[in-house]
Amino acid sequence: MLTRALDACDAKLRDMTKTLAVAVADPQRPGQESADKLHEHGEAALLLARLLAEAAAARHLLSIFANRSAELQKLSHYAAAQVVLNLRAALVLQGAAFCGGIEELQLAPEWTAAVVAASAPAVVEALAPWLLQGGASQPSAYALSHDHEEVRALFRDFGDERVAPVAEDLHRHDRVIPESLFSAYAEIGALAITVPDTYGGQFIDHRSMALATEELSRASLGGGGSVITRSEICAKALLKGGTEAQKRHWLPRIASGKEVVAVAVTEPGAGSDVAALRATAKKVAGGYLLSGEKTWCTFAGRASLLLVLARTGSADSKAKGLTLFLAPKAAVIPPADDHTFAWDNPRGGRVSGTAIPTVGYRGMHSFTVFFEDFFVADDQRIGQEGEGFALQMAGFAGGRIQTAARACGVMEAAFRAAVRYAQDRTVFGRTLASLPVARRKLCDMAARIALSRQMTYAVCDAMDEGRGHGDASLVKLLACKDAESVTREAMQLHGGMGYSEEFAVSRYWQDARVLSIFEGAEEVLAILVIARAAVRDVLAARA
User: Fold this and answer.
1) How far apart are CA 366 and CA 370, in angstroms?
2) Which band of pLDDT confidence, cut at 50, 70 and 90, is reported for residue 1?
3) Which residues pair with 264 in a beta bridge?
4) Residue 542 above 90 pLDDT?
5) pLDDT of amino acid 272
6) Taking 80 as the threshold, does the pLDDT of residue 123 lie above it?
7) How confident is the model at residue 520 (pLDDT cuts 50, 70, 90)?
8) Considering the entire predicted model, what is its pTM?
């Protein structure tokens, strides 16, 4: 019956997509949307994108857990019921305002009964002992093959033994990853996992990369989970647009950790609107001179290789005028001043940077970087002039699935902390874990984690087949928003101690907040990527 209820949700989502498509259609260009109208209906697009993500995740979770333990089946049914109830509530509250109106979700009585039964207090009471015994964090809850479980175990143990012990120090004192730890990342293959073995790497598949990222993020987002992402973005760009000589030179060095990568794309006036970038690459004999300001360049001080997107075309050339470059520089090795750097290029020009103070996501530092006539040779350009935007977006698809995995790791850390605290804390003569409100919160958290985690793995598998790039945005939207909710609830269960710095749960909450911002801000992904793609399919079919 839950599947039938989800069928009804999918039908309603199709109606919503068609309604939005009509509202944003460009009368001058049959089969296409109007960008201005899409922005005007941004609230509707945001709602639609979130509901599409939840519905897709619920259906997948039901399928994955269908033949698992009774507890996992109950959890998947609980999660799916919450998705149905969320859609129904959203339409009750916002349906009338959705592009001129959309009818509420109607379910057959027996479907409604199934939804209510799956989320009833009795289900919470049945799941609570299993959750409190760590059932949702056992290997069976990840639903992995033997080989993938071995990958997860490798990075789980490394995260627990090497990363977690320094996580609080990195965060509280805003330090950068110790060189000994970064060397250990290279030794364990955390960087090689992004590069095919043809070029000296140890790439297995996207799910293995996500598992490594998830487990390292559980130990520390800034000090562990984000180490892989920049290498993967650069490797994907090289694999898609690099020459064979570039691949054979740079990829083995990235895989071994000899080259540490930072990505220089965002600018103060051009964040989500990448096509509005202003940093320039002026053609000169033998190469280009990079000039301009970049911001949010994570690990740029320690990095020895900057992946830079700059404008080679005219000021009004938008995305077609962007080109991608590799800009080598000297690395700033701790214990040097890791909050600033400056390097004079022997071949001409200068690059400098200053770390941006942040409320969380510490361990790598994010820099504002200035290029001053910084010379890069012709053979350091990736692809042809004007191909940079497409190459960068190919890299970002991998970055988004990595970010979804990072969100899953942070959620898992917060959930485990909440379970421990709920069992230890006594209030009004009872343990916190015995109270119905606390048990409901734990069920909600476990359901959200399961939805995001299994959807992340599914998109990884699709990317192995050359699909799933659009779904990477879908699961990134879902997981990162839920990370804020899960870490908030974990903090809430800790009460006043959750707001103190004595418990790591406050770090999880601070770290989670950045996830919906970087690698594609939530609103941009929802409106300009997910909703736009959905309405384009409708408009194209009508045309």
Assistant:
1) 13
2) confident
3) 308
4) no
5) 62
6) yes
7) confident
8) 0.94
Longest dimension (CA), the chain: 78
Contact 103, 110 (CB under 8 A): no
Residue located via tokens 């259906």: 59
CB 40 within 8 Å of CB 100: no
Residue 73 tokens read as: 């089946």
**CA separation (Å) from 332 to 125, 361, 363, 366?**
54, 19, 14, 14
Instruction: Collect all residues with Cβ–Cβ distance below 8 Å to 291 and sequence separation of at least 6.
Output: 279, 280, 282, 371, 372, 373, 374
The torsion angle over the Cα atoms of residues 77, 78, 83 and 88, rounded to 10 degrees, is: 100
The pLDDT, as a whole number, for residue 271 is 60
pLDDT digits (tens, 9 = 90+) for 394-408: 777 778 899 999 999
Cα gap 231→254, rounded to integer Å: 7
Which is nearest to 4 in space by CA: 91, 100, 80?
80
Contact present, 247 and 382 (Cβ < 8 Å)? no
| Residues known to be catalytic | 519
Residue 373 in tokens: 């006539």
Alpha helices in 31-69 (DSSP H): 35-40, 42-64
Q: What b/e readout covers 91-100, taking b as 16+ CB neighbours within 10 angstroms?
A: beeebeebbe
Structure tokens at 57: 């995740």
Strands 350-355 and 366-377: antiparallel
* Number of Cβ atoms within 10 Å of the Cβ of 490: 31
Q: Which two tokens stand for residue 438?
A: 């606390």
Average the pLDDT over 473-488 and give the result.
96
pLDDT-based confidence at residue 270 (cuts at 50, 70, 90) = low
In sequence order, the 6+-apart residues with CB closer than 8 A to the CB of 189 are 202
Query: In the structure encoding, which two tokens stand for residue 255, read together?
Result: 């895989």
Please state, in angstroms and rounded to a whole number, the distance separating the CA atoms of residues 270 and 268: 6
Write out the two tokens for 318. 């938008």
Q: State how far the Cα of 336 lies from the Cα of 340, in Å rounded to an integer.
A: 9
Place of tokens 């022997």: 346
Q: What's the CA gap between 324 and 253, in Å, rounded?
A: 19
Domains annotated on the chain, with CATH: 2-128 (1.20.140), 146-254 (1.10.540.10), 260-386 (2.40.110.10), 396-519 (1.20.140.10)
The DSSP letter of residue 278 is -
